[in-house]
Design brief:
The chain has one domain: 3-Layer(aba) Sandwich (UDP-N-acetylmuramoyl-L-alanine:D-glutamate ligase). The chain has 311 residues and is an alpha/beta fold. It has a 9-stranded mixed β-sheet, sandwiched between helices. The longest helix is centred in the last third of the chain and has 16 residues. The radius of gyration is 18 Å and the shape is globular.
Length: 311
């Protein structure tokens, strides 16, 4: 580590309660399935990444909204138990908290439907209120389960303050404004990269072309996660396929969130983005081998053990 303090990571994004339904296969249109189990698990891409960063060794602050329903206190207390600062997580009156229905099939693949709830009320004013927190951070992590304009405002505040920004563009937007791409790193998966550029991304060669396009649109660096093939990293000059780590896939629900949170922490620690991507691959592999989004996030020690013994 190149500093004597924990990396300060601000995470701006969604906080949801996940209703996780496990079934033999994902339901097809018109099909009725009998599920194997159902469980309520704290989630949301923003909260997942906050937990991932905290467990990976970061000093993490969450910026977001919950509702005023029965889920709100559970969602807040769960983040606090992880050591996450929630001084900028606000309750929203007369509004439910975000809810996601997550179908997970036996292979570990998933299908997710999100009801934004209070996340949809997250506003530019909330970002302004948290601007000093953002400015004091090493990295701002953002995703797209809150209003696009709010995310753009947060990116602008961070860039003005000289704070690095990582964008996980999920869910992929129908339109991607130029301001959204003004980030230090964009980290989509293959399908998200394809949605943004409007072309299929089905191979490493496709991913490299997509990374070039995303860089051209404004992102300083690009990391496209490709599951078992690893992560295609583009630094604006050359491509590097960063190797994956061995794993038995159980649940991929939050593997991308584990990747993003661990990457942010290790990037601050090492100041080496290729190394940080490799570390993040290890975190993603561990998360995919476990059940549940936040419960499946690995600790710093677990990630480092896998990373150092297999890199």
């Amino acid at each position: 580590m190149k500093q004597n303090r924990l990396p300060k990571i601000a995470v701006l994004g969604s906080i949801n309660m996940d209703l996780v339904i496990r079934c033999a296969h994902l339901p097809r249109p018109g099909e009725t399935l009998l599920a194997e189990s159902a469980e309520e698990i704290c989630g949301g891409k923003g909260a997942n990444q906050a937990v991932a960063a905290a467990r990976a060794g970061g000093d993490v602050s969450m910026i977001g909204r919950v509702g005023d329903d029965a889920f709100a206190d559970r969602l807040m207390s769960n983040l606090v138990r992880e050591g996450i600062d929630c001084s900028h997580v606000h309750k929203t009156e007369n509004c439910p908290s975000g809810l996601a229905t997550v179908f997970v099939e036996e292979s570990g693949e998933n299908s997710i439907v999100v009801v934004p709830g209070a996340n949809g009320r997250f506003s530019r004013e909330d970002v302004i209120a948290a601007s000093s927190l953002i400015a004091a951070s090493d990295i701002l992590l953002v995703q797209l389960e809150v209003p696009l304009g709010t995310v753009v405002t947060a990116i602008e505040f961070a860039r003005l303050a000289g704070v690095k920004v990582i964008l996980d563009p999920a869910p992929a937007p129908d339109e991607c404004p130029a301001e959204l791409m003004n980030v230090d790193l964009i980290s989509p998966n293959e399908s998200e990269a394809a949605a943004i550029i409007g072309r299929t991304v089905g191979s490493v060669e496709d991913a490299e072309k997509a990374a070039r396009e995303l860089h051209k649109r404004g992102a300083n660096n690009v990391a496209i996660t490709m599951g078992a093939e690893g992560t295609l990293y583009w630094d604006g000059t050359s491509a590097n396929l960063v190797a994956p780590f061995p794993t038995t896939v159980v649940d991929t629900t939050a593997a991308g969130d584990a990747f993003a949170g661990a990457l942010a922490v290790h990037w601050v620690c090492s100041d080496n983005l290729v190394e940080a991507v490799s570390f993040a691959n290890a975190a993603g592999s561990l998360a995919a081998s476990r059940i549940g989004a936040q419960p499946g996030m690995a600790t710093q020690e677990e990630i480092e053990t896998l990373w150092r013994t297999n890199k």
